[in-house]
Specification:
Helix content is 17%, strand content 31%. The protein folds into three domains: 89 residues, Beta-grasp domain (Ubiquitin-like (UB roll), Roll); 94 residues, Beta Barrel (Elongation Factor Tu (Ef-tu), domain 3), CATH 2.40.30.10; 134 residues, Nucleotide-binding domain of ferredoxin-NADP reductase (FNR) module (Rossmann fold, 3-Layer(aba) Sandwich), CATH 3.40.50. The two termini are 35 Å apart. The chain is α/β, with parallel strands linked by helices. The protein is built from six helices and 19 strands. The chain binds FE2/S2 (inorganic) cluster. The site of FE2/S2 (inorganic) cluster has 13 residues, from loops.
Length: 343
């Protein structure tokens, strides 16, 4: 028996290792040829100190100079001493290159392409070795656009355990992926991608969560919902989805399906275009008040264009509410998932 440990590095690259309950995370990591920072290996120096974002573990033996009581209470841990009691997600204080690793490369074939509307396309991939691909819901990969020397980043809209991978693309005139999907794509095309990457992923739901999507920023949130459908949350989860025009709206039926199967999951959407037939016209900020934010007892996950991310941050500040955690990812149509940060 072993547990899966996700090692999330400072550069956003994530590697997954298997770790038995009787071995330390550092031992399992080095066995997998991933050299996370280590010095004493004895719980004395604190060099390996990391942050555990998800999962249970036995912290092992160490001295206060390496890890204080307060740090341990805040989720910090020592991989040279800790042994897992469940799957874990750790933030490692080093780049993947420093740990002598990097993003994994995967190959796949195009399985399907669905043109949702003039502005939004979805495509599905069958990856050659699905067992070799692990990711956290919300993460992205860099996809080499077939027939070009361009790479574009897309978040999975599929869940971590679903066999087929799916991605949402906003159509951009002259865009590399848009052009490929509109003009040249054929089922069976070979595709290569690297990853997973990003620190925008679902943490344990220890309090209510508010998910906010702008346009195709819905994709990583769909992946999170797929995970929540498998592991029902103990707290309410509300999703707000904002788009520019009616034709940008996709997957409302999928959200309705999730509302049926995920206990405590609700959602609403709005369209900025005044000519929209949507009930809510305007921006998602118009749907956020202090009760939506549970007066701060909430984890916020926000994925959208930079202007939307900044507008939401400003709106929440103006409400005088400080969420328990705020995870966001900004993207631009050309590069998508340009940054992934947590604040
Ligand atoms: Fe020194 Fe872990 S390597 S405390």
């Amino acid at each position: 028996m072993s547990f899966q440990v996700a090692l999330n590095f400072e550069d956003g690259i994530t590697r997954f290792i298997e770790c038995r309950p009787d071995e330390t995370v550092a031992e399992a990591s080095y066995k997998a040829r991933i050299n996370i920072p280590l010095d004493c290996r004895d719980g004395a120096c604190g060099t390996c100190k990391s942050l555990c974002e998800s999962g249970g573990y036995d912290g092992g033996d160490y001295i206060d100079e390496a890890l204080t009581e307060d740090e341990a209470a805040a989720g910090h841990c020592l991989p040279c001493q800790m042994t897992p009691r469940s799957d874990l997600v750790l933030r490692i204080p080093a780049t993947s290159a420093a740990a002598k690793t990097g993003p994994a490369t995967h190959t796949a074939t195009v399985a399907a392409v669905k043109q949702h509307s003039a502005t939004t396309v979805e495509f599905a991939l069958d990856v050659d070795d699905r067992d070799a691909l692990d990711f956290l819901p919300g993460q992205y990969v860099n996809i080499a656009v077939p027939g070009t020397d361009q790479t574009r980043s897309y978040s999975f809209s599929s869940g971590p355990t679903q066999k087929q991978l799916s991605f949402l693309v906003r159509t951009v005139p002259g865009g590399a992926m848009s052009g490929y999907l509109a003009e040249r794509v054929r089922a069976g095309d070979r595709v290569e991608f690297t990853g997973p990457m990003g620190s925008f992923y679902l943490r344990e739901t220890v309090r209510p969560a508010l998910l906010l999507a702008g346009g195709t920023g819905l994709a990583p949130l769909l992946s999170m919902l797929e995970q929540l459908a498998r592991k029902p949350p103990a707290h309410p989860v509300h999703l707000l989805y904002g788009v520019t025009t009616d034709q940008d709206l996709v997957h409302l039926d999928t959200l309705e399906d999730y509302a049926e199967v995920i206990p405590g999951f609700t959602f609403d959407h709005c369209v900025a275009d005044a000519a929209s037939s949507a009930r809510n016209k305007g921006f998602v900020t118009g749907l956020i008040d202090s009760s939506t934010l549970h007066d701060g007892d909430v984890d916020v996950y926000l994925c959208g264009p930079p202007a939307m991310v900044e507008a939401v941050r400003g709106h929440i500040t103006a409400l005088g509410v400080t969420p328990a955690s705020f995870h966001y990812e900004k993207f631009t149509p050309a590069t998508v998932r340009a940054t992934a940060e947590a604040a």
